[in-house]
């Protein structure tokens, strides 16, 4: 472990000033752990401290795991990136494009111009969105009584396409459908498939959709930041008896577990003797699959859940098979072509395959893209690259 006292100080200061409730940050190279630190409390106003094995809702950090399961099945010839996805999950054939609403407020829908493929789903170009960033989806849900995605009900997956498959990029529920494809061809529930093919081999014993008694004893609460900047714990939990396991955002886990997953991707599909993916599959996942399509600014439709999100402003960005890709080097030291993503309650990871370093930053705060959290993630990442150059 490198001596990263300055980083400890920055993170301690953030929790002591109550700017953040609790934080776990961890980073590793291909040689081993570079940093691990836990600060603050699992819930403000209570005594239990954050620890390296604290369990949090990792939300959309689930997506890269679902994509890994998908790509294992692509390797085995059970799924194909270009095949119409409705051949595997017939319900997808019902997806229609939303053209607007009639004067009575009823949605106007039409058939899409082309079928949705698995590649569309993995790259968020299928046409699906999320209500958090799309007013049109909220309007549709209200008009039709369709539940929100975190209900984990099958009805939540029936929101319409916002454009024709392949035409644009919009972040949405596509990876939940990809999870359904994993279940359809493997004949297993998503939790069982993950356990046998990803978590077991990687030793990720604390990552699951259903929170065990041992995990619950270490679980951090989600906090809401009010308009005045103050934080308060809220009741929030992903349904524990869901109609479907949410491959786009249903997992709970720890920093250590996710770092094992990140290292596996960083090292071309293999870590500590476990081969989860072929190296050429990881290379494929790490390429930009959206061509010149633009990843724009996320404008919040539900401000309590997300701030405005501008990823690497002024930089071209690509999207791999479930990862954000920065086309140029980042100011922190992150190499061009690195992989990253995040979770709604301000959890973040990055995987730098060129410099062989990955990091995980976990907190439990709404809204997403919290300015304090982003500032700390940036400082954490910058310090990790500084530590690398000093080694």
The residue fraction in helices comes out at: 25-40%
- Report the uncertain regions: none
Number of strands: 16
Largest β-sheet summary: 7 strands, antiparallel
What is the average per-residue confidence, as pLDDT, rounded to a whole number?
Answer: 97
State the secondary-structure class.
alpha+beta
Radius of gyration: 20 Å
Instruction: Give the strand order of the largest sheet, numbering strands 1, 2, ... along the chain.
Output: 2-1-15-14-13-12-11
Q: How many separate helices?
A: 10
Bulk shape: globular
Overall description:
By secondary structure, the chain is α+β, with helices and mostly antiparallel strands. Helices cover 28% and strands 17% of the residues. It is globular and about 60 Å long.
List the helices and strands and how they pair.
Blueprint: H1 5-16, E1 22-29, E2 32-40, E3 56-57, H2 62-75, E4 97-101, E5 107-110, H3 118-122, H4 135-144, H5 174-186, H6 190-202, H7 213-216, E6 223-225, E7 231-233, E8 252-253, H8 255-266, E9 270-271, E10 274-275, H9 279-285, E11 317-319, E12 324-326, E13 339-343, E14 347-352, E15 357-362, E16 365-366, H10 371-390
Short overview:
The chain has 391 residues and is of the alpha+beta class. The chain has helices spanning 5-16, 62-75, 118-122, 135-144, 174-186, 190-202, 213-216, 255-266, 279-285, 371-390, and strands spanning 22-29, 32-40, 56-57, 97-101, 107-110, 223-225, 231-233, 252-253, 270-271, 274-275, 317-319, 324-326, 339-343, 347-352, 357-362, 365-366.
């Amino acid at each position: 472990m490198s001596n990263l006292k300055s980083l400890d100080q920055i993170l301690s200061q953030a929790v002591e000033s109550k700017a953040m409730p609790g934080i776990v940050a961890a980073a590793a190279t291909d040689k081993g752990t570079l940093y691990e630190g836990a600060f603050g409390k699992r819930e403000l106003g209570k005594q239990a401290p954050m620890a390296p094995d604290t369990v949090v809702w990792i939300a959309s950090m689930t997506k890269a795991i679902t994509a890994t399961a998908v790509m294992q099945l692509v390797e085995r010839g059970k799924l194909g990136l270009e095949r119409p996805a409705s051949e595997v999950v017939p319900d997808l054939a019902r997806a229609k494009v939303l053209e607007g609403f009639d004067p009575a407020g009823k949605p106007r829908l039409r058939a899409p111009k082309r079928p949705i493929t698995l590649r569309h789903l993995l790259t968020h170009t299928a046409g699906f969105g999320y209500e958090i960033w799309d007013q049109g989806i909220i309007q549709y849900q209200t008009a039709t009584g369709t539940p929100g995605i975190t209900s984990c009900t099958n009805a939540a997956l029936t929101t319409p396409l916002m454009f024709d498959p392949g035409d644009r990029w919009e972040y949405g529920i596509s990876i939940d459908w990809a999870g359904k494809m994993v279940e359809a061809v493997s004949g297993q529930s998503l939790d069982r498939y993950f356990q046998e093919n990803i978590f077991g081999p990687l030793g990720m014993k604390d990552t699951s959709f259903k929170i065990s008694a041992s995990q619950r004893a270490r679980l951090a609460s989600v906090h809401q930041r009010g308009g005045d900047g103050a934080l308060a714990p809220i009741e929030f939990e992903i349904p524990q008896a869901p109609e479907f396991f949410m491959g786009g955002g249903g997992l709970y886990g720890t920093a250590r577990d996710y770092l094992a997953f990140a290292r596996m991707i960083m090292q071309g599909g293999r870590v500590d003797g476990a081969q989860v993916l072929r190296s050429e599959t990881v290379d494929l996942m790490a390429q930009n699959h959206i061509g010149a399509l633009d990843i724009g600014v996320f404008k919040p439709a539900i401000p309590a859940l997300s701030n405005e999100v501008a990823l690497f402003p002024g930089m071209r960005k690509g999207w791999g098979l479930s990862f954000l890709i920065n086309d140029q080097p980042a100011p922190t030291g992150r190499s061009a072509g690195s992989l990253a993503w995040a979770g709604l309650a301000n959890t973040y990871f990055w995987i730098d395959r060129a410099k062989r370093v990955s990091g995980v930053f976990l907190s439990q705060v709404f809204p997403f893209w919290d300015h304090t959290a982003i500032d700390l993630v940036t400082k954490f990442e910058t310090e990790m690259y500084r530590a690398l150059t000093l080694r």
